[in-house]
Prior knowledge:
Helix content: 25-40%
Bound molecules: 2'-O-acetyl adenosine-5-diphosphoribose
Order of helices and strands: HEHHHEHEEEHEHEHEHEHH
Strand content: 15-25%
Amino acid sequence: MDKKLEKIAEVLKKEGSTVTFFVGAGISTNCGIPDFRSPKTGLYANLQRLNLPYPEAVFDIEYFKKSPKAFYTLADELFPGKFLPSIFHYFIKLCQDKGKLRRCYSQNIDTLERIAGVEDDKIVEAHGSFANSHCITCKAEMETKVLRKLMKTGIPKCPVCKGYVKPDIVFFGEGLPSKFFDLWDEDCDTEKNLAIVAGTSLAVFPFANLPHEINKNCKRVLINREKCGTFLDSPRKTDIILLEDCDKIAEKLVDLLGWKTELDALIAK
Ligand code: OAD
């Protein structure tokens, strides 16, 4: 393990090297937010109370059009505002501060990368976020604070056409934001790059394709509790696999890179 960590630190220390992150729900489990697919603790194993036909229906646009209540029950529990970033989120922010962060592609809707201080042009929220909301019928925008207020008394409806309003989270059956495709065209061919994949089962496409498509000269790293996706199906000789808690790994990397004081300052903020 130590050798693998040293290799990662060595690339990060190199003049002009950059890192692209590909992250998922696993980087937020230590913040108290469940991931989706972990067998006992994942969200999809704990939705019996919502009486869904199948767990993913809670994020399915066709199901939402018929029965928005299930999503709104969950949204109330997951709404950003009460969670704090993890060590891993701060590690991404430190990479930014050191001029190393090329991009952070995130599947998460918890906005914790932003709360940790990662800048808008560095983040691609591939599956959207709670930051904005729109009517699913006439597309009128609704301010988050208005949505949050309406959620307290029922399902938020559009004041213009009475259609259901939904936060701009990408549901199954909806397209990803154009920022995802535009920036990936720029980012996928960078050579001096390190690709760190963390806290994701790489089960959802097209996101799961990104670490597979990244330039062959880019060193790929997986930090996750399980081996998954392209690291199983199309492994590369240079892949580094760390099957560990992502915060533990981030902490060790921060130590090796000499960034400990800065990390402590971010956590204490
Ligand atoms: P998953 O729940 O599918 O995968 C989370 C991964 O993180 C699993 O492999 C866990 O073993 C691992 N994990 C959990 N905690 C960890 C920790 N502390 N350290 C290291 N690894 C850890 O979540 P995602 O891959 O993010 O989409 O799921 C992708 C998409 O599926 C989500 O964005 C969501 C969902 O349906 C939508 O809502 C559209």
